[in-house]
Design brief:
The protein is an alpha+beta fold and 155 residues long. Helices cover 39% and strands 19% of the residues. The protein has two domains: 6-46, Winged helix-like DNA-binding domain superfamily/Winged helix DNA-binding domain (Arc Repressor Mutant, subunit A, Orthogonal Bundle), CATH 1.10.10.10; 59-140, Alpha-Beta Plaits, CATH 3.30.70. Strands 2-3-1-4 form a four-stranded antiparallel beta sheet. It comes from Pseudophaeobacter arcticus.
Length: 155
């Protein structure tokens, strides 16, 4: 496991805000010269602390106007049931996130679809056929107060 210092964390948070900035701009933002900044960045990538870069896009403008949180409880927790469920979910492009949970449900999925018909199709044709699902609870997102990819400062 990589040990990060405050400067490494500052580089990460700065890139989380703007992953397209040049090394020169990054170095200025974190108060380093470009060469040591690039060396730190490469080390963060090599160690797996930074696992990639991506573009944040507006899902509604993309055509995926419905965001849904789906909570799933399995009937049984046998290894085969769990593995089958997780393997199937990994193959579903509608599922952006799948978290194993403590409490009343086993999994929480964050799902994006075009609309209610697409969500019905998703449940009927992708979740129900998996088998071993005991219950499905759905919450539709009607607004977002905060959404960030920037980690909090530990210092």
């Amino acid at each position: 496991m990589a040990t990060l210092d405050q400067k490494d964390r500052q580089i990460i948070r700065t890139l989380q805000r703007d992953g397209r900035m040049s090394n020169q701009d990054l170095a200025e933002a974190v108060n380093l010269s470009p060469s040591p900044c690039l060396r730190r960045l490469r080390n963060l990538e090599k160690s797996g602390v930074i696992s990639g870069f991506s573009a944040r896009a507006n899902a509604k403008l993309y055509g995926l106007g419905m965001e849904i949180f789906v909570r799933i409880r399995l009937e049984r927790h046998h290894q085969e049931v769990v593995q089958t469920f997780e393997r199937q979910v990994l193959a579903m492009p509608e599922v952006l996130e799948c978290h194993m949970m403590t409490g009343q449900v086993d999994y929480q999925l964050r799902v994006l679809v075009a609309g209610l018909d697409a969500y019905e199709h998703f449940i009927r044709n992708k979740i129900h056929p998996i088998g071993g699902v005991g219950s499905i609870e759905t919450s539709f997102v009607y607004g977002t107060v905060k959404q960030t990819a920037v980690f909090p400062d530990l210092g």
